[in-house]
Specification:
- With about 100 residues, the protein is α+β, with helices and mostly antiparallel strands.
- The protein has one domain.
- Helices cover about 20% and strands about 25% of the residues.
- The protein has 2 helices and 6 strands; from the N terminus they run E-E-E-E-E-H-H-E.
- The protein has helices at about 65-75, 80-85; strands at about 5-10, 15-25, 30-35, 50, 55-60, 100.
- Strands 1, 2, 3, 4, 5 and 6 form a 6-stranded mixed sheet that branches.
- The chain starts with 5 loop residues before the first strand and ends with a strand.
Length: about 100
């Protein structure tokens, strides 16, 4: 896996989001909105990369994402059905060579 991978993210409240990997650091994965790869467009809220914990980023699954999205919309973030669906998601695989050091 590498930068610019499309991934599935588990946001606060268990909302499923589709994002793009900007960079991988020791602290987590920097992700941004998938519609914002064209930097010439007007800046949007999700165009700035944010740091997501490793355990909140998954490989994108075009079958699972619509199920997660529909279940979240219909039953909310605390739904046991949503939790069961999240358990089917495959964690995003980070190669050690792809980790960028961030100065503190």
């Amino acid at each position: 896996m590498s930068n610019n991978d499309v991934v599935l993210c588990r946001s606060f409240g268990n909302e499923p989001l589709v994002r793009v990997v900007w960079s991988v650091t020791d602290e987590g994965i920097l992700i941004y909105g998938q519609d914002n790869r064209d930097w010439s467009k007007q800046v949007q809220d999700d165009s700035v990369p944010v740091l997501a914990p490793f355990d909140a980023v998954y490989e994108y699954d075009d079958v699972l994402f619509p199920q997660l999205e529909k279940t979240f919309r219909n039953f909310g973030g605390l739904s046991p059905k949503l939790e069961r669906l999240w358990q089917q998601a495959r964690p995003y695989k980070v190669k050690v060579a792809n980790i960028n050091k961030v100065d503190k």
